[in-house]
Specification:
Length: 148
């Protein structure tokens, strides 16, 4: 399990010399680092009011199947506006151990609330998902493989 947590921390440490995390980002835990079973998992809603962008990072340790991930959005946390998949938010499927993927969403055209959907199929996966949101007052950027 220690190796799994290092997959989450290592990408963050690479960014530390160039930005001040305390001022530039807010950290959200979408899925805590545990073993997830063969089903669809949905995170709690993240309120992005006042944020310019958000970067979701999924980290998987041991995987005995496949892991798929995408983001959904709603203007009112699903009260009257249904949750809808964000076009282009699919991350590449994870099917091997010790993988980390990132997807960044610019929030100027997004709904206020976002949530993560993770599907584990054909087995179990030790995984975690964090989100780093960037308040609108900073000029720093978050490098990610995918920008939507």
């Amino acid at each position: 399990m220690g190796d799994h947590l290092s997959l989450v921390v290592a990408p963050l440490l690479l960014l530390m010399p160039i930005i001040d995390f305390h001022k530039a980002f807010r950290l959200h835990l979408a899925f805590p680092p545990v073993e997830y079973t063969d089903t669809v998992h949905t995170s709690s809603a993240l309120d992005t009011l006042g944020d310019d962008s958000i970067c979701f990072v999924i980290s998987c340790g041991q995987v005995s199947g496949t892991v798929d991930f995408y983001i959904e959005e709603s203007s009112d946390d699903g009260v009257s506006d249904s949750w809808v998949k964000v076009t282009g938010s699919d991350m590449p499927q994870i099917a091997t151990n010790n993988q980390a993927k990132r997807v960044r969403s610019l929030l100027n055209s997004r709904e206020r609330y976002l949530r993560a959907k993770m599907t584990v199929a054909g087995g179990d996966a030790f995984a975690s998902v964090i989100a780093l949101s960037q308040p609108t007052y900073t000029g720093d950027s978050t490098p990610c493989e995918t920008n939507i």
